[in-house]
């Protein structure tokens, strides 16, 4: 089955860190670019980061630049997002999403909830 | 505040045709393809339209997309109760070097 499964979410203190993972299955992970997209409670979608299939092309939203780091391990069919210096406004469901073509997110995981609170 | 502008709500009756609009800029919609996503409460978004007007396999032909200048539209014909969801537009922005989403339009089927 073609799917993406996120993990690693949880409750973290402001200023803390967390590492999210996304495991891909059912398709050739190493040929696709990937994204992280988040959704704060009751809010809309916000793109977070993009990584090309070979990790040479990486983009971040201004809101997370310098604090979040995207990476991937093609040998393990896995995508990661390292979240540092977390703030209350980073509280959201984080989705990993496969890119079709350049960036079109055509396959989404079920999401993992990150809550930043004291 | 979202970079792409959508009306927060829309409504229609079963069988009706509804249009949802998305307004951007020269660096977003004006220069790049638009995608549309459908999201039901508590679930992940689903790609509905890509490259302005293309439908992924499995998406009913009732859904169609178009783009003109710096605006795009999603049309749903033969509206059904199961179409009640939130619809988001999205596009790459050349100035921001990133993807921008609309704020979402909540569609209610009366």
Summarize the structure in words.
The complex is a heterodimer of chains A (118) and B (110). The N and C termini of chain A lie far apart (39 Å). In chain A, the strands form 2 sheets. In chain A, strands 2, 4, 5, 6, 9, 10 and 11 form a 7-stranded mixed β-sheet that branches. Chain A has 118 residues and is mostly beta strands. In chain A, 40% of the residues are buried. The model of chain A has no long low-confidence stretch (mean pLDDT 97). In chain A, 0% of the residues lie in helices and 53% in strands. Chain A is built from no helices and 11 strands. In chain A, β9 (92-100) and β10 form a beta hairpin. With 110 residues, chain B is mainly β. Chain B is built from no helices and 9 strands. Chain B has strands spanning 9-12, 18-23, 34-39, 46-49, 63-68, 71-76, 85-93, 98-101, 105-109. Chain B starts with 8 loop residues before the first strand and ends with a strand. The chains are: A mainly beta (118), B mainly beta (110). The A-B interface holds A 35, 37, 44-47, 50, 59-62, 95, 100-111 and B 2, 33, 35, 37, 39, 43-47, 50-51, 56, 88, 90, 92, 96-104.
Low-confidence stretches of chain B: none
Shape of chain A: globular
Please state the CA-atom Rg of chain B, rounded to the nearest Å.
13 Å
Strand residue content of chain A: over 45%
Low-confidence stretches of chain A: none
Features:
heterodimer; A: 118 residues; mainly beta; 4-stranded antiparallel beta sheet; 11 strands; 0% helix; globular; B: 110 residues; 6-stranded mixed beta sheet; 3-stranded antiparallel beta sheet
Compact summary:
Chain A is mainly β. Chain A has strands spanning 3-7, 10-12, 18-25, 34-39, 45-51, 58-60, 68-73, 78-83, 92-100, 104-108, 112-116.
């Amino acid at each position: 089955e073609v799917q993406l499964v996120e993990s690693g979410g949880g409750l973290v203190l402001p200023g803390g860190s967390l590492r999210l993972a996304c495991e891909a299955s059912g398709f050739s992970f190493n040929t696709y670019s990937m994204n992280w997209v988040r959704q704060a409670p009751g809010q809309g979608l916000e793109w977070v980061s993009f990584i090309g299939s070979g990790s040479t092309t990486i983009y971040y939203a201004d809101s997370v630049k310098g604090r979040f780091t995207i990476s991937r391990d093609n040998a393990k069919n896995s995508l990661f997002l390292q979240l540092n210096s977390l703030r209350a406004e980073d509280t959201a469901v984080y989705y990993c999403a496969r890119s079709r073509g350049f960036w079109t997110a055509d396959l989404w995981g079920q999401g993992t909830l990150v809550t930043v609170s004291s | 505040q979202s970079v792409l502008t959508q009306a927060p709500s829309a409504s229609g009756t079963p069988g009706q045709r509804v249009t949802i609009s998305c307004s951007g800029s020269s660096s977003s919609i004006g220069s790049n393809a638009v995608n549309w996503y459908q999201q039901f409460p508590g679930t992940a978004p689903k790609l509905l339209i890509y490259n302005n007007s293309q439908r992924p396999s499995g998406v009913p032909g009732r859904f169609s997309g178009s783009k003109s200048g710096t605006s795009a539209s999603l049309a749903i014909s033969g509206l059904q109760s199961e179409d009640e969801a939130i619809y988001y537009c999205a596009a790459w922005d050349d100035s921001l070097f990133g993807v921008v989403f609309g704020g979402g339009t909540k569609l209610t089927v009366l």
